[in-house]
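Hello,

Following up on my earlier ticket. Below are the two sequence lines again, exactly as submitted.
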Amino acid sequence: MKKLTTTLLSSALALGASMTAAQADKLTFYCSAQEDWCQLMANSFQDATGIDVSMTRKSSGETFAQIRAESSNPRGDVWWGGTGDPHLQAAEEGLTMEYVSPMRDQLHPWAISQAESAGNKTIGIYSGALGYGYNTDLVAANNLPEPSCWKDLLKPEYKGHVQMANPNSSGTAYTTLASMVQIFGEDEGFEFMKGLHANINQYTKSGSAPIKAAGRGENTIGIVFMHDAVAQAVSGFPIKVVAPCEGTGYEIGSMSIIDGARNLDEAKQFYDWALSAEAQNLALQVNAFQVPSNKGAETSPSAPDMSTIKLIDYDFKKYGSSDERKRLLQKWDEEVSVLPQ
Amino acid sequence: MRGSSQDSTSHPVLTFWVVAGWVGYCLLPWYGVEDGLWSFQWLFDGYPFDSDYAPALFLIMQGEKLWLAPLLIPLILPLLVLRKVKSDPLYARMLVLAGALGFGWLIIQGFSIGIRGFNYDWMKAVFGDLGDRQFGMGYGAMLVASAFLFLLTQGIAARGAVNGDVFVVSAIGGVITIVTAFVFFPIAKMLFAAFVTEDGSYSVGVFVSKFFDDRLWGLGCLSGGRCGAAWNSLFLAICVGFITTVLGLAFALAVTRSGFRYKKAMRALTVLPIITPPFVIGLALILLFGLSGTVTVFIADLFGVQPTRWLYGMPGVLIAQTLAFTPIAFLVLIGVVEGVSPSMEEASQTLRANRWQTFRTVSLPLMRPGLANAFLLGFIESMADFGNPLVLGGNFDVLSTEIFFAIVGAQYDQSRAAVLAMVLLFFTLSAFYAQRVWLGKKSYTTVSGKGDAGVHPLMPKGLSIPVLVIAIGWAFFTAVVYCMIIYGSVVELWGVNNSLTFKHYVTAFSVRFEEEGIRWTGAAWDSFWTTITIAAIAAPLTAAVGLVTAYLLTRQSFAGKNAFEFGTMLSFAIPGTVIGVSYILAFNVPPIEITGTGIILVVSFIFRNMPVGVRAGIASMSQLDKSLDESSLTLGANSWQTFRRVILPLLRPAILAALVYSFVRAMTAISAVIFLVSAEYDMATSYIIGRVENNDYGLAIAYSTTLIFVMLSVVGLLQFLVGRVQIGRRTQIGTGRST
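Thanks for your patience. The regenerated structure is below:
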């Protein structure tokens, strides 16, 4: 039955494509996933529909800043990828548009609940759990124990060996902070961050930088999303991925249509296409190991198996709101980042 | 007087601008054409009646955009005085009136009526809802605006300003207008944000609380903690300014005043870091000195010490910036060191001073403008640098990165970014002021119209040995860094799998030959061609604007000259990140609507790099005696002819420096670019950063290496085209007579 729907849908898409191709339609596509994934999405959509796609890749924070700056005269049509918080924030500020896709019934419940929490202004396209990875060579060379829980990272042996991004600049690190607050409670969560602070050698600016540095041997342990760590391991770097024993938070990579989009029909067409199983299967071609939101999409054998990871009940609505975010970040700035290391 | 000479009743310049105004009003599309500046699709697409492409006149005749109708008055006014003589007071008055009226009305209507009708609530209250809207200015509006501007300047000149010199007044007016539009306007828009509270109203308290922030001014590093970003930036910039000036001087002396044999090679080497995309030096340093770097591991094995992360923080940033900015100091200083007239030095020697005394009391003091400029450039460049602190900064926060992350970060705090930008601006402007005080009002003129012969003496022995040691040592270090870069581009996976491969070059730059011709299949071609095009357009424009400005600053005196100089240097003191965001804010909406186009990139490069052209021009021009201009003027040339025939030829080193610098910077700049690139106009650097972010160093470095070679050939070509300059009758030391 599902097969039939997909066939019907793709032929409908193809029909739409042949009708629209003649007019040389275009779509301005803001992409916040990794470069090659963005390229692949743009090209595949172009091949599937004949719509001319112009793609810009920027991190989700940068894209959010751009959409906000352009809000009185939007340039972009659709924003795909990147962690969910900026998407939620954009929805909250009315920068993105409400849209209910006919593809919804094919999605995992977490993707739909993400959409509903934002008034249908965004939707989940993939999810990834937080964790950390370590460089096995460096751990062996420095005779360090192998960590397996969040609390392990507080051990004094790891002093100067742990790296995470600065929560002020990185969505990943903010997710870490919010997860700790949710796992341990606010007070103990901040105690954890303070203890971690003593072992941190650098707060990087970008979210996945810590594990990349670990891959190159410039750092030992990097707190990142597990799929980023897996990607490093798959590219040949000596990285071992850890799903912390206490449980962990996760992100939902999202997609939104920009309010006031100049090519609204094409944006909707892209939106529906990006939720299809075929579009989501493209991730495997570019070593993106997130879990796709379409139930029918394939997952990689290298991807962290979400069912074995202890996921917390992450409150996206609360921790994605700008007020809570500002409060937590300010608290982190004032109580954690100023401590001596 | 009346009718006494041939130029009294025919005004070719005036006629030109009057015609231009009418052409812009009646023939060219008034509003921006969405398909881009170079697309002429509109000619066949309903022009001239389709309201998207219609000229202003056709719009009015169709009863649309009636607020453009009043512009007819200032367009008609100058027609009345076309047959009048210049000295007629009516001539001047009419032109000033027409220019001011037209230009003023253009601005007023541009800012009041935007994409959603009236821009201000009070206008809606007074005039009611407009029910119409307008987009950004297009060819027509731009041409009409320039016409009004130059009518105004001609009117002012006719009234006797700057001795009635039309060229000088128009140049001043032109520079002021573009600097206002592309520097002051966006910055003002941005700085207003410093006082904006979260709910959108204005308050001084917000500014104060953000200004006196511990993250900005904390002094924790004196007691083992961390210092504020402001102190970090200041300290770093002073170190970088000082070190780059010393190294630049050492290179300049080694090249011009020593018998060192491999000067050419050394000269080429100093150009290398400047043509390197920003992240690459940082990456190479990590490969050498990082925790798992080649040198670190080697030393750790040799001495059995524990490798550390010393590179991440102030030391790494300092080394990388010194590598990157020494060539700028060199480029400034070489012109000055070459420009010191040997006659002075010979006179000193004739008076029995030895080489050391000559150098210390004659040559060195004459180089002061160059030294001060080199320090200032190093200082400002370090303050504004963004790429190196990003890669190597570790926990060493500096203002430029803080600004970037205040804007793009999860906090998205524009007003904090604006406050940080103001602090940065304060530092750079203070340095600017200090430099002027140090230079004082002394004269550094040595090249005059009078006899100027001889060759530079060699450096004194006591000086030449340390200079050569420093220069050769640094040159060697630079060479090692570059070997690492080339090596990095041909290994499989940096640091893990060191087998050699060309696959990164193939991925980036593969081409396929098909029936229809060459298919550029490589991943990098798109951004590569865009970058080359944009850089090639921006470079000559930058040099032109910069040198004209330098000419006005050194050679003309007019009211408000200091403010003028301040304005033209301002954009240099503002970090690119701020420029980027302020440009998006200012130019995303009418009247100037250029975000997402290639124009905004070109414009940002012109105003980011113009100050270097200005500084290079000033440094060289302050060494040219005014008697040269005066004799040219006495012989009946006007100031434009003097500028073109006398000053420009003597300025060839400065022109070359400005051209090279702006081309190269346009290809390697990142901080402003990252905000301004769009899907259609992606630049090489932002593409490379995408690869770096992805840990795909191989491709990033292969692309950077290619860019380096491209720029090397361009620099060589420019040098060949502009030609080696010979001032006076000097010959190269070593080939000519010895001292």
